[in-house]
Design goal:
This protein is α/β, with parallel strands linked by helices. Helix content is 34%, strand content 23%. Strand 2, helix 3 and strand 3 form a beta-alpha-beta unit.
Length: 225
């Protein structure tokens, strides 16, 4: 099956620039802009350290349904895999499901379709396989239990809420070993530009500290530390 495309994809102007940044500087920029509730819960962690994950968001919303037909659960899940958008990061709200919302075959499918990574407010399995594959996955816990007969998607590319954060399709995300920030799409241009400027200032401060400048003097001179 061919790859899906979306409004933001291979040629979007922000993914590559965000991927050169890091979550801490993006956080500081967004805090300075007066934005609130944009950091996902710290319990959502990468299964292994790796490069910065950044890009526009494609959302997956789901629900626990212990009466679901096993065939239906897998049919709906593979339907999601078929629709995930090229050049996007999937963010999944599974609705407190005690199961894995990502596994080896699914990760390989998404990677092959040009999806950049996967973030779940829930579980993951086949962790060793995914580590070898190198596909970026963030989750809360590991479990061998799958979705069969237990869980169904209920919405694709719809608003979802994770912790204090409401994530809309087309928002942007940046994730690394420090954590995950969601950038509202109407602020992404401003945030990217400000993050690049802030990172340059931090480099200047770093050089000044290494050259022997007092840290308080550096803060007063550059207004950042």
């Amino acid at each position: 099956m061919g790859r899906e495309t979306g409004a933001a994809g291979e040629n979007d102007p922000y993914t590559a620039r965000l991927a050169k940044s890091y979550s801490a500087v993006v956080h500081d920029v967004m805090r300075g802009m007066g934005l609130k509730d944009f950091t996902l819960p710290p319990e959502i962690r990468p299964i292994q350290p790796g490069p910065v994950l950044a890009g526009p968001v494609y959302t997956l919303d789901g629900k626990v349904d212990t009466s679901a037909d096993p065939h239906e659960t897998l049919l709906e899940w593979t339907g999601f895999l078929s629709k995930a958008k090229l050049g996007h990061v999937v963010i999944c709200q599974p609705g407190n499901a005690p199961v894995a919302l990502m596994g080896e075959l699914s990760a390989e499918t998404l990677q092959g379709r040009g999806v950049l990574g996967y973030i779940a407010d829930g579980g993951c399995r086949d962790v060793s396989f995914i580590e070898r594959l190198g596909f970026p996955v963030y989750c809360r816990f590991f479990t061998p239990r799958d979705i069969v007969g237990t869980w169904l998607p209920k919405g694709l590319d719809v608003p979802i809420t994770i912790g204090p954060v409401t994530v809309h399709p087309g928002d942007y995300v940046i994730a690394d070993h420090d954590g995950i920030c969601v950038i509202p799409r109407n602020h992404v241009a401003e945030v990217v530009e400000a993050a690049e400027a802030a990172a340059n200032t931090e480099n200047t401060i770093r050089d000044a500290i290494r050259a022997g400048m007092d840290p308080q003097e550096a803060y007063l001179k550059y207004g950042k530390f």
